Amino acid sequence: MAKFELKLPRMGESVAEATLTTWLKDVGDTIDMDEAVFEIATDKVDSEVPSEVEGVLVEKLFDIDDIVKVGDVVAVIELNGASPSSDNGVATANSGQDEIEDHQEIISELEDNVASAKETASKSLKHPDAEVSERFYSPLVKNIAKEEGISVKELDAISGTGNEGRVTKNDILTYLADRKSAKTVEVAAQDAKNHKSTEKLVSTSGQEKEQVARVKVSGNDEVVEMTRMGKLIAKHMVDSVATSAHVQSFIEVDVTNIVNWRNKMKNSFEQQEGEKLTFTPIFMEAVAKALKKYPMMNISVDGDRVIKKKNINLGMAAALPDGNLIVPVIKNADQLNLVGMAKVVNDLANRARNNQLKPDEVQDGTYTVTNVGTFGSVFGTPIINQPQVGILALGAIRKMPSVIETEDGDFIGIRSKMYLSHSYDHRVVNGALGSMFVKAVADYLESWDLNREV
Q1: Do the Cβ atoms of 387 and 363 come closer than 8 Å?
Q2: pTM, whole model, 2 decimals?
């Protein structure tokens, strides 16, 4: 029978590799067309990879936690029935020969190849003093170690979180971050060497640093391991605070007209478009217009250079069922009308909750909006989503007593109000621009036309 090579598909322009997180099928299992065979994870999103053919899984070429590059063959499937054309990437073998192959021989040969690869990988990672590691490391981990000057002895000392204690990409990056922190502390210790009391407080090794930071656990405490996504989010947030000089501007917005207009239009909108009309697309429309007016908020920083983004791609922070957050991106948001914006917002939010986003749909954002009001917060101080320079938090809409100015004088009335909290990178965005931008968003919302047609 013919065989089909299942490869890691292209997952977006900026995604070159992924981590294999789960095998959903075992060798010998029958696979239907479009049935998921394995799961992969990038720094942004998890995805299932389906089969393009029907058949039986006969080979797995990667283990869990291995790094797989786009285009690599991950699995081999023995086809049922006729062989697909070679245009679809199918490797065709002599059918008579394949029929007499024994699956156990295939598996045995694969195991020998993996063992040989491990031995070669171990020997290729040598210390200047001719030390050789007996531990297996992926090519990505070895390349990072080589570029950062990590010795075999150091590498062997890193605690791995991967399968069978294997060192993953995140493990070595975390180690590098800790090593840089330790070097910074060591310099401080050298400067204070004449003060014994200071020397005792300074940690000069990664091991001592870890012991100082360790939290005591009592018998009644429950220890819960962070999820892979949780670890990525934590690192992303810490890196952002370390990179950008965060500063915030706040503004109160009267959204009474928007609330009244939505209440009037939401039923007819759903009947006409088949979509629910939430506040989110209205807010996204306002942000897109403000970015059009103030393009220096739609930038990224690259060292000493400022990159002005041509497209306005709005990130929309969405809560997942497990409590984590993901940020799908509305591409070219300034080119969408309100109906188009509502459809995109609803689609991305639904698929985010069901873990069905594609890697490309969480890439290339130029500005982010997060709705903390969903959880009842009046306002928040969000952390910038690198490499962007701004993020807007939407507070809860509340009915409040307010002074209303009229030609006949001022009076007190009940109005629907909310706070906008704008966090921006003070390295490149000064207080004037940061405040004018959020004021532009507020002005657009407050001037909402009650007679607007969808």
Answers
A1: no
A2: 0.62
- Structural domains of the chain sorted by starting position, each given as residue range(s) with its CATH number in brackets: 3-101 (2.40.50.100), 125-203 (4.10.320.10), 247-446 (3.30.559.10)
Neighbours of 163 (CB within 10 A): 13
Judged against a pLDDT cut of 90, whether residue 386 lies above it is answered with yes
Gap between the terminal Cα atoms of the chain: 58
Query: Cβ(155)–Cβ(168) under 8 Å?
Result: no
Mean pLDDT within 383-387: 94
What are the DSSP calls for 386-404, one per residue?
TT-SEEEEEPPPEEEEEEE
For residues 37 and 20, give the distance between their C-alpha atoms in angstroms, rounded to a whole number: 11
Q: Cα–Cα distance between 362 and 12 in angstroms, integer?
A: 10
Provide the 8-state DSSP code for 5. Answer: E
Query: Which of 360, 315, 385 lies closest to 15 in space, CA to CA?
Result: 360
Q: Assign 85 a pLDDT band (cuts: 50, 70, 90).
A: very low
Residues 166, 179: Cα–Cα separation, whole Å: 20
